[in-house]
Specification:
The protein is an alpha+beta fold and about 525 residues long. About 40% of the residues lie in helices and about 15% in strands. The longest helix has 24 residues.
Length: about 525
């Protein structure tokens, strides 16, 4: 066994000498087996002076490890290990100044975002700047200080939803002040409502608006459902917007299992959306002052682009991109038909039309038919589009109403048939944008709100056209008013063309064929409602 002397050469590391003092007795006495543990514990009970005069202690196992290192490597083995030199790509003075300028412009920019901005804008060659290098540059300029965050005093449990759409979280976030053209350019604060999937951390949808009211929140909720299906549960805070009766109505109509609210003065369970809001503040809102955004539309356009990037990047907690994690179990996602989503989000008011069927809703006049005059009706409408509202009686749709416009009522005069022209060669037409749009739809299977509306409008147009053809074929040409018939179908349809034709045939068995179109339309409409 190697026995060391008691007077080693003076080492370059002062801590090596201090550690040697603590183990000197052990390596000098070389105790036999059975006595080594007692000697180490006796040495561990003492304190020893450090390089600066401060006292330090060491456990018996630590002293045993120091003795082993000394016996195998000498006094130099007790010195602190020096980190191996790491090859690094140094930045030029100009490139270092660029990173400092970017940090000063938006202090909230992280190291990753600084590198990303510099590389994508061509300020630094891709791959040259590393996080550690940028950190050293910023630290040298005193630009890398991070504010300490308060930690909760109580212990918190962590949870995660088991599959996509099992739980959605939502919250409102304060945004920047922008000019509102509707108020003469007055600067108003924008508010962001966003929905986050708990399992995948995917941002389902978000939108800035000048009002943080119920319609603004429900618009985001509706778009999230249209694009990503139905959630099993939703998790909200205790704001009046989320606790409204209409939100409970929407949840019940769509079959969402329930609403969870945070406990008073304990928002920790809402932690994922709270953390997402902090990330939005540091990574998106901090960039707004340094941008050219001046309008709400520009802000929302930039937000959607930023949120799309967020959804395609690996998340720090799950290690997967939120979009990929959400799509990995797409078969378990429930999708609601568009007409159910629309009906669930309709607002309702109670009105009593006057003797001419006129009633007012939010400053706009509408007219119902004579059968609903002076009767109490339930008016259901879409806050986004009030050009057409629905009149409901006893829980059933009675008719649809448009804005009332005073106009002349005249029976149309049939126009003379134009002279037959020789058939001309039809020009070839290609809707290229429609072709491009369809290709994109094939790449992205989830339907967008515009796609859903187009599909619903296309289906409705086909039904109305078929019903119009069925009725026009049974009416005398002199009484066919295409515009009046189509307007009637728009308010009372869609109709089943086959059923409408059968009702019209039965009607003409008892009435002459020169009956006015409106009489036939009212009869068919009444019979179809009775059959329902």
């Amino acid at each position: 066994m190697l026995v060391a002397t008691l007077e080693p050469p003076v080492p370059t590391d002062p801590w090596a000498l201090a550690r040697y003092q603590a183990i000197a007795a052990y390596v000098a006495l070389v105790p036999p087996r059975g006595e080594r543990r007692a000697l180490l514990e006796a040495l561990a009970a003492r304190s020893w002076p450090g390089p600066g005069g401060e006292a330090f202690t060491a456990s018996a196992e630590t002293l045993r490890a120091w003795a082993r290192r000394y016996l195998n490597g000498g006094i130099e083995a007790l010195a602190d290990a020096r980190p191996a030199p790491v090859a690094r790509r140094a930045l030029t003075a100009e490139e270092a100044a660029i990173f400092c300028d970017l940090k000063r412009q938006v202090p909230a920019r992280s190291l990753d975002r600084l590198v990303e901005i510099a590389e994508e804008t061509g300020l630094v060659a891709p791959g040259k700047a590393r996080r550690s290098t940028v950190h050293r540059v910023l630290r040298a300029e005193d630009l890398s200080a991070r504010k300490p965050r308060e930690r909760p005093a109580d212990d918190l449990d962590r949870f995660e939803a088991s599959f996509p759409n099992e739980l959605w979280q939502s919250d409102m976030l304060e945004g920047p002040r922008l000019r509102d053209p509707a108020r003469g350019g007055e600067r108003r604060k924008a508010w962001l409502y966003a929905y986050l999937d708990d399992h995948s951390r995917m941002c389902l949808h978000g939108r800035f608006s000048f009002k943080g009211d119920l319609p603004a929140m429900e618009l985001v909720f509706r778009r999230a459902i249209q694009k990503h299906g139905l959630p099993a549960r939703v998790y909200f805070d205790n704001g009046a917007v989320y606790r409204s009766g209409h939100v409970r109505h929407v949840v019940a109509c769509l079959g969402v299992h329930g609403i969870i609210f945070t406990r008073a003065r304990r928002p920790m369970g809402h932690g994922k959306i709270e953390a997402f809001n902090r990330y939005i503040t540091s990574a998106f809102l901090s960039e707004v002052p340094a941008s050219r955004i001046v309008t709400l539309d520009e802000l929302n356009e930039a937000w959607l682009a930023w949120a799309d990037r967020y959804n395609h990047r690996p998340h720090g907690e799950t290690g997967e991109a939120p979009r990929d994690r959400w799509r990995s179990r797409l078969a378990e996602v429930r999708v609601a038909p568009e007409h159910r989503v629309r009906e669930a989000f309709l607002w309702n008011e109670t009105r009593t039309p006057d003797k001419s069927g006129i009633f007012s809703l939010l400053g706009t006049e509408y007219q119902v038919g004579p059968a609903l005059a002076r009767r109490k009706i339930e008016v259901r409408y879409d806050p986004e589009d009030r050009s057409t509202v629905e009149a409901w009686v006893d829980g059933k749709l009675a008719e649809r109403c448009r804005e009332f416009v005073v106009s002349r009522h005249r029976r149309p005069v049939p126009a003379a048939a134009p002279a037959a022209a020789p058939p001309a060669r039809a020009a070839v037409k290609v809707d290229w944008l429609d072709h491009v749009t369809r290709q994109r739809r094939a790449q992205f299977p989830e339907p967008t709100p515009a796609m859903l509306r187009e599909e619903e409008a296309r289906r409705r147009d086909e039904l109305d056209a078929a019903a119009f053809d069925a009725l026009a074929a049974r009416l005398h040409p002199d009484v066919v008013d295409p515009r009046a018939i189509r307007d009637f179908l728009a308010l009372h349809g869609p109709w089943d063309p086959v059923a409408a034709g059968e009702i019209a045939d039965a009607f003409f068995l008892a009435h002459p064929r020169d009956t006015h179109a409106r009489v036939l339309l009212d009869h068919v409409n009444q019979k179809l409602k009775e059959n329902k």
